[in-house]
């Protein structure tokens, strides 16, 4: 999906910044806001006035979502649905008292679009998610998302009842900072050994074994006796 994402970034950047995107910053592991702010600096956009960059972020996120929405075929063909992802989300959705959402570097419109492309949006409560267009570090954003979940559903989601399923050392660190258990899946750039070394509470090689995933989530949220 990297190629279509780069094309959409270039289109959205030009619309908001008023100049072409000549140099695209590092995207892997970065949130949408981090990428945008880096792109402004790399491409010489003058944002010296306080708050200028932040004021441009929301229009940029909207333009980016529109640019991606205009490329449905490319999203589908260049994207990849990981084996077992749909089955895993469907199974977790059946667990009593469980609410699923996303903590992502994408803005909410982009996250909805990408999950809808592969039929996964029905498993996610987007109202309580944490998104890359928000000006929080990822660990703090996890706490914000958990508070949103509590406010919406009228219950308290404690730290011991929150599991962050992710695939990078940065995500494991965010889970620790955000007060959540981390279930790391070695489906990204990091190996299972690397994810264990940075302190993941549990590690899976992939999402293919739905029962293993559900078992680990249940175990990680069991009260310690």
Q: In which order are the strands of the major sheet placed? A: 1-2-3
CATH 4th-level superfamily of the largest domain: HAD superfamily/HAD-like
User: What would you report as the Rg, rounded to the nearest angstrom?
Assistant: 18 Å
CATH-defined architecture of the largest domain: 3-Layer(aba) Sandwich
Give unreliable regions as ranges: none
Approximate helicity band: 40-55%
Number of beta strands? 3
Return the string of H and E elements.
HHHHHHHEHEHEH
- What is the CATH third-level topology name of the largest domain? Rossmann fold
Which CATH class of the largest domain applies here?
Alpha Beta
Please report the distance between the alpha carbons of the first and last residues. 45 Å
Largest sheet: 3 strands, parallel
Overall structural class, as computed from helix and strand content, comes to mainly alpha
Question: Mean of residue pLDDT?
Answer: 91
The count of helical stretches stands at: 10
Dominant shape = globular
Q: Which percent range describes the beta-strand content?
A: 5-15%
**Domain count:** 2
List its salient traits.
225 residues; 2 domains; 10 helices
What does this structure look like?
- The longest helix has 18 residues, at 52-69.
- A three-stranded parallel β-sheet has the order 1-2-3, with helices on both faces.
- It starts with a helix and ends in a 5-residue tail after the last helix.
- Helix 2 packs across helix 3 (52-69), helix 5 crosses helix 10 (210-220) and helix 7 (138-153) packs across helix 8 (169-178).
- The chain folds into two domains: 2-77; 81-220, 3-Layer(aba) Sandwich (Rossmann fold).
- The protein is globular and about 55 Å long.
- Strand 1, helix 8 and strand 2 (181-185) form a beta-alpha-beta unit.
- It has ten helices and three strands.
- With 225 residues, it is mainly alpha-helical.
């Amino acid at each position: 999906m990297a190629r279509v994402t780069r094309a959409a970034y270039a289109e959205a950047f030009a619309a908001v910044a008023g100049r072409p995107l000549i140099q695209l910053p590092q995207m892997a592991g970065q949130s949408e806001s981090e990428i945008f702010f880096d792109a402004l600096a790399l491409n010489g956009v003058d944002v010296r006035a306080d708050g200028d960059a932040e004021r441009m972020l929301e229009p940029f996120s909207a333009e980016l979502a529109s640019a991606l929405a205009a490329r449905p075929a490319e999203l589908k063909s260049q994207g990849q649905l990981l084996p077992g992802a749909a089955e895993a989300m469907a199974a977790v959705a059946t667990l009593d008292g469980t609410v699923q959402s996303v903590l992502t570097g994408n803005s909410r419109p982009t996250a909805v679009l990408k999950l809808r492309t592969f039929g996964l949006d029905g498993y996610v409560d987007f109202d309580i998610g944490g998104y890359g267009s928000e000006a929080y570090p990822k660990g703090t954003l996890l706490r914000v998302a958990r508070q949103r979940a509590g406010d919406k559903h009228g219950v308290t989601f404690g730290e011991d009842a929150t599991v962050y399923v992710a695939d990078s050392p940065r995500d494991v660190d965010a889970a620790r900072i955000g007060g959540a258990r981390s279930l790391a899946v070695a489906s990204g750039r990091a190996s299972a050994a690397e994810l264990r070394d940075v302190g993941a509470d549990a590690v899976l090689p992939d999402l293919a074994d739905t029962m293993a995933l559900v078992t680990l989530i249940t175990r990680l949220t069991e009260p310690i006796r």
